[in-house]
Amino acid sequence: MTTANGSGAMFDGIADRYDLLNRLLSLGIDQGWRRQLVDALLLAPGQLVLDLATGTADVAMAIAEREPTATVIGLDPSPRMLAVGGRKLGRETLARRVALIEGDAEMLPFPDRTVDGVCMAFGIRNVPDRARALREMARVTRPGGRVVILELSEPRQGLLAPLARFHIHTLVPRLGAWLSGSEEYRYLQASIARFPSPPDFAEVMRAAGLEVLEVRPLTFGVACLFIATPVQT
Description:
By secondary structure, the chain is an alpha/beta fold. The chain has helices spanning 8-12, 18-25, 29-40, 58-66, 79-92, 130-140, 161-180, 184-194, 198-207, and strands spanning 48-52, 71-76, 98-102, 115-121, 141-152, 210-218, 223-230. The chain has a single domain (8-230), classed as Rossmann fold (3-Layer(aba) Sandwich). A seven-stranded mixed sheet has the order 3-2-1-4-5-7-6, with helices on both faces.
């Protein structure tokens, strides 16, 4: 496959190996990052939560496990990633509370103010029109609800920043290509480098109608958690 633009088709090509590659390339740290994302949603009984770029449904499952009365909708543009997620749901008996649907973060198929929380892990950098997707998140979230975004970033400061950049620029694409037999992980390095710095992305969120409550660097700035709520109008 030569498509390496963050599209659903690109992720179709690595769907069966996606979970294993993430564990190996992040040394397992990504699981702790996801737990912090779920914590930041401030889940309450009976809530409806939308997980964008749900992929193989790791975050959707974590939400459903954390709050046994919550309902989760996982949306992703890759049918093969969703198929892998569906098989995992079947094994975990969570299918009654987690629905997986194919869709586009730039055009969410939900009315205004219908979900209690929205999250997106490692997906916003792949959206062509990020501002539009953020506006959609603000639109569908009820007043007081949380919008939480977890994204990789390229550390620019600190003693360990050069080591982290070496990992992103050199090890991630090479190991990813070797382990998966695919060149898609070279796209990962390039997309991280092009993504705005955390302060700049927080400004994009504010311009889209979100009040940014916290910008939290994770693991020396290799990832960042953005916690927001819709601006009250």
